[in-house]
């Protein structure tokens, strides 16, 4: 799996969110609620959709599939002004990301994340940074289609600067 490092500028997002865990997965419900309303969002940047995870600072200390995190279905926007009341907003600060091109069914993406966290990250010059993680779903994204393509963005920082 190829990786590139990108510095993402501060970016604003508008969308729907829910608290969930791996054992209480609400991803489908979040997207079902979000998609019919996304056209109401003002000042969208591009057509990409963002699946965002906001984890607590201790989330990755010991695996617990019942540990909760915030899951988002969102779009990037120029401005948070004038957005629909039922939508939430999130601002992700500037930072470095390890970006992985993933091709395959969204149901199989867990294998890609296992590779990233168990193999790539420990052997790289980077460590996990405490910022939101996300997937970018552009025109080649086809949900559970094995030919679907998306990018997985994992926040990282230099091991030498921590």
TrEMBL record:
InterPro entries: AraC_E-bd, GyrI-like, Reg_factor_effector_dom_sf, YobU-like_regulator. Residues 141-162 are annotated as: Disordered. Residues 1-157 form the AraC effector-binding domain. SMART domains: AraC_E_bind. This is AraC family transcriptional regulator. It comes from Roseivirga pacifica.
């Amino acid at each position: 799996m190829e990786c590139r490092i990108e510095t993402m500028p501060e970016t604003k997002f508008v969308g729907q969110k829910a608290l969930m865990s791996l054992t209480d997965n609400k991803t489908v419900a979040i997207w079902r609620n979000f998609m019919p309303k996304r056209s109401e969002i003002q000042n969208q940047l591009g057509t990409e959709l963002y699946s965002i995870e906001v984890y607590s600072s201790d989330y990755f200390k010991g695996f617990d599939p019942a540990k909760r995190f915030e899951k988002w279905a969102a779009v990037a926007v120029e401005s948070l002004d004038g957005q629909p009341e039922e939508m939430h907003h999130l601002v992700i600060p500037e930072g470095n990301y390890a970006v992985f091109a993933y091709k395959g069914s969204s149901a199989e993406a867990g294998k890609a994340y296992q590779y990233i966290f168990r193999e790539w990250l420990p052997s790289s010059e980077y460590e996990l940074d405490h910022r939101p993680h996300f997937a970018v779903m552009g025109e080649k994204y086809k949900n559970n289609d094995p030919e679907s393509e998306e990018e997985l963005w994992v926040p990282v920082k230099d091991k030498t600067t921590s």
